[in-house]
Automatic annotation (TrEMBL):
This is Gamma-secretase-activating protein. Residues 635-742 form the Gamma-secretase-activating protein C-terminal domain. It comes from the Eukaryota. One of its GO terms (biological process) is positive regulation of amyloid-beta formation. GO terms for cellular component: trans-Golgi network.
Length: 846
């Protein structure tokens, strides 16, 4: 069970005991009838729950439950049996608005003699119970909802009440209250209450209690228009958004969402009713979810319009089970970063609202994984984020993704689409616990070769950095990469998806704040081709390769340019060291790795330029800090992966000795480090200092010589100065070790070879030094002769020189102060002569 519910409120446990303890007037008629007569009417913004029940004398009572102090409160009693269809209380608990049907079954016969309005809407003073005002007396049903301002405002202000009519209009009443006799609060207006028309000719409306927004749809010519009115704490309201919809809404009647719950209407509702809901999130996501009972009973079709992205997705799911009871409609749940589509007994579909472009980010579950415990089979509402209201049972739940079940699903998944979706979903929740990160790394280490369509290490590193950095700065989520995948060709078994381009919403108010600002940012990114805004490593790769090739050709850039790059790298490594004051388990050498420091510095410089282009309103110091944190966290993340691997295989933290063979655990660690290197090369990401030395050390211990050399020649293993020195010191000069040393020695980069050559006291190495000395001296001589007048040059080019003549020439060059090895001991013309003679004797077998 991927979704976990925790009970927040239950009528039977939180209200019934309190009712039974009250006096006979307030007590339930009979305990057996409580399920039918006791039900929730509304949930207010502050979380307080309004419910109604039938008292002992068939009178109708209204109560209030406060979830903070777990206490119930009796609000009002009607001295007759009425059917309450809507109820709301203001923030100060001084006014109660109630809408009810006047006619019961017994009274319908009397209506022929004495006609009365079907629905009566009252405004009642309840601090204390006092005057009652009639707001509406009509033959159509009315819903009521008080607006809730920000907290800590002055007491007894003006209250504002929305009246939603089945005659397709919405009004706002303004109610002034005053305090009398210190305790009594009464309505100040003696005549008609001032009111405004908020919306008209609507066919659908939804109330967002948390953000105090009213969404409604009005038909216009051949299209339907979705509109939104935002109510502000300063008692103003604005039409803030309009969106043209391509959804067909003909013959749906009038639908209200989140305006309370009418038990009798739910019982009479036709099974083919339209289910339409709007969900928003703090990231600026704006989704319209729609489903309707299908013409074909063995399949379900629903659509989610990602209005903040400019496209919609329509899903068709064939139903496998025919033995499960028929349900009225699928339920849509708002999980902030995800929208959940739930059909009890059949499936649970989690859609990523922030990155809905790739289907592989959606989790589609069936069977036991899709089951949600404690939910009734119908009448499920999601009144606010991460909340479920089971209207029939009268229970409220907090809903969240179960991290343990998510990890278990990750382990059990056989499809790459499921693995990728579960991995990204899990990484979203890593911020809550580091233990989850360790479990993910454990899964990655066991499944490096199981995923054929994506690299789990690349996805883990990139997505972890994305979720670690994006909450800190607005718009950063549009500029940093969140995946290594550019497209996805795979399909999700059991589901058909059709993608359609839709019109973008139009914001009617400029300079918005909060959600509307982020929505506007999302819409701007769609207009200006969002994928091109994300940081790309292609330019970084080209520049890095160019600098490395210039280094080999000894054509370095200006000193200031390189100094700035290496200064960037120095800041990153200092920041990384400051985070890890405790000694790491992995024996990484703190060495001077020119290539990696160059890549670190380049990444800092280019990421900084990328952010500076798109975050003009953010200061340079802030961007410098963001980039420093990003690259430091990248290196730290790789270190944490290796730390987890070392703990998993119980490897020692001491420096590896190269004269011993590696264990099976070391070979497993070597394999994972090879995959880390492959992932880093694929994304052009730097590696922490000492990575290549440790990787090479494990390779020497674990691989046979021919495989080791093959890895070196193909770039899987990279030779470093530290590793070469350790190799010469740790291994003696046995025949096998000499072969290894010589093979490594001939593959060393020239700069490293010059530094470590004098540490190996061996004829082969002496021969190498002598040859190199002759090469450099003759090269110096050639350059010097090239600068002399033409008459001083040799008239005849000598291809091979006798040894004595060669030594005389070298000695002459040395006398001119051109010896490149003058700082090294015993490397001179005599050394070359002795080495040449020894080598000749070895070749002749003397």
């Amino acid at each position: 069970m991927l979704l976990q519910l925790s009970a927040e409120f239950d009528l039977q446990s939180d209200v019934v005991p309190w009712l039974l303890a009250q006096g006979p007037a307030a007590a339930l008629d009979t305990f057996e009838k409580s399920a039918a007569t006791l039900y929730i009417v509304n949930v207010e913004r502050n979380g307080k729950i309004i419910y109604t029940w039938k008292g002992s004398g068939r009178n109708t009572c209204i109560g209030l439950y406060d979830p903070l102090n777990k206490q119930n409160e009796h609000l009002y009693t009607f001295e007759k049996d009425v059917h309450i269809i809507s109820c709301s209380i203001n923030n100060e608990k001084t006014l109660l608005a109630v809408s009810f049907l006047q006619s019961t079954k017994e009274e319908r016969v009397n209506q022929l003699l004495q006609p009365v309005s079907k629905c009566l809407t009252l405004l009642i003073e309840i601090h204390p119970v006092n005057n009652v005002r009639v707001l509406k007396a009509v033959d159509t049903c009315i819903r009521v909802q008080f607006l809730y301002p920000v907290a800590n405002r002055n007491p007894f202000p003006e209250s504002h009440l929305l009246l939603i009519s089945e005659d397709k209009y919405i009004e706002q009443f303004h109610i002034h209250v005053v305090a009398e006799d210190r305790h009594n609060v009464v309505i100040q207006n003696s005549g008609q209450l001032p009111r405004d028309r908020v919306a008209g000719d609507l066919i659908w409306a939804q109330w967002d209690m948390t953000e105090q927004r009213l969404f409604y749809i009005v038909p216009k010519e051949s299209r339907n228009i979705l509109k939104c009115v935002q109510f502000y704490p300063d008692e103003n309201c604005n039409l803030i958004l309009e969106a043209s919809l391509d959804i067909s809404l003909r013959d749906i009647g009038l639908k209200f969402v989140n305006f309370g719950y009418d038990y009798s209407q739910d019982q009479e509702m036709e099974p083919r009713s339209l289910n339409l809901q709007v969900f928003t999130s703090k990231t600026g996501s704006f989704c319209l979810c729609c489903s309707q009972a299908p013409d074909i009973p063995k399949e379900v079709t629903y659509s989610v319009s990602f209005l903040h992205k400019g496209y919609s997705k329509t899903f068709t799911v064939p139903l496998q089970r025919t033995d499960y009871p028929q349900v009225k409609e699928v339920a849509f749940l708002n999980l902030d970063y995800y929208v959940a589509v739930y059909l009890p007994g059949h499936f649970l579909h989690l859609l990523n609202t922030q990155h809905p472009d790739l289907m592989c980010y959606n989790l589609f579950l069936t069977g036991e994984d899709a089951r949600i415990n404690m939910l009734h089979k119908s009448s499920i509402q999601s009144p606010f984020k991460s909340a479920v209201w089971d209207c029939c049972s009268g229970r409220m739940f907090a809903v969240r993704i179960n991290e343990c079940s998510l990890v278990q699903f990750l382990w059990n998944s056989k499809l790459d689409s499921d693995r990728l979706a579960a991995l990204h979903c899990a990484l979203l929740h890593v911020r809550n616990t580091t233990d989850l990160e360790m479990q993910i790394i454990q899964w990655i280490s066991e499944n490096l070769s199981a995923c054929s369509t994506f690299d789990p290490l690349q996805e883990f590193i990139i997505a972890s950095l994305y979720w670690a950095m994006c909450p800190e700065t607005s718009k950063l989520d549009k500029l940093l990469p969140y995946t290594s995948l550019l497209y996805w060709n795979g399909i999700i078994p059991g589901i058909t998806c059709i993608t359609d381009i839709i019109s973008l919403p139009e914001l009617k108010v400029q300079n918005c704040k909060g959600f509307w600002e982020k929505l506007n940012l999302n819409l701007e990114c769609v207009k200006y081709a969002e994928p091109h805004l994300h940081y790309n490593n292609n330019v970084l790769r080209r520049e890095w390769y160019k600098l490395l090739s210039e280094e080999k050709a000894e054509e370095r850039r200006t000193t200031a340019y390189l100094r700035n790059i290496f200064e960037n790298a120095k800041k990153v490594l200092s920041n990384l060291a400051a985070w890890n004051l405790e000694e790491r388990l992995v024996p990484l050498f703190q060495e001077e790795d020119y290539q990696q420091r160059l890549l670190i510095g380049l990444m800092v410089a280019q990421l900084k330029d990328h952010l500076m282009r798109h975050l003009q309103y953010v200061g340079k110091m802030k961007i410098d800090q963001i980039v420093l944190e990003y690259v430091s966290k990248l290196l730290d993340l790789i270190c944490r992966i290796m730390e987890a691997v070392w703990r998993k295989y119980s490897l020692q933290s001491c420096v590896l000795c190269l004269d011993e063979r590696g264990s099976a655990a070391e070979f497993a660690a070597f394999h994972i480090m090879s995959r880390i290197l492959e992932a880093a090369n694929g994304m052009c990401m730097p590696l922490p200092p000492g990575f290549h030395t440790l990787h090479m050390g494990l390779g020497v211990r674990c691989l046979p010589l021919h495989t080791l050399l093959h890895y070196i020649d193909n770039g899987v293993l990279q030779l470093t100065e530290t590793c070469a020195i350790k190799l010469l010191k740790d291994l003696d000069n046995t025949e096998k070790n000499e072969k290894l040393k010589f093979s490594i020695f001939t593959r060393l980069p020239e700069a490293i070879g010059h530094k470590v050559s004098r540490l190996w006291n061996h004829p082969v190495n002496s021969n190498f030094i002598a040859r190199n000395s002759v090469k450099l001296l003759l090269d110096k001589l050639r350059k010097r002769q090239h600068n002399r007048p033409v008459v001083d040059r040799l008239s005849v080019h000598v291809e091979f020189l006798p040894l004595n003549y060669l030594v005389d020439m070298l000695a002459e060059v040395e006398d001119q102060g051109l010896n490149p090895f003058e700082e090294e001991d015993n490397v001179n013309a005599k050394f070359v002569e002795e080495t040449a003679l020894k080598h000749t004797m070895m070749l002749l077998g003397l």
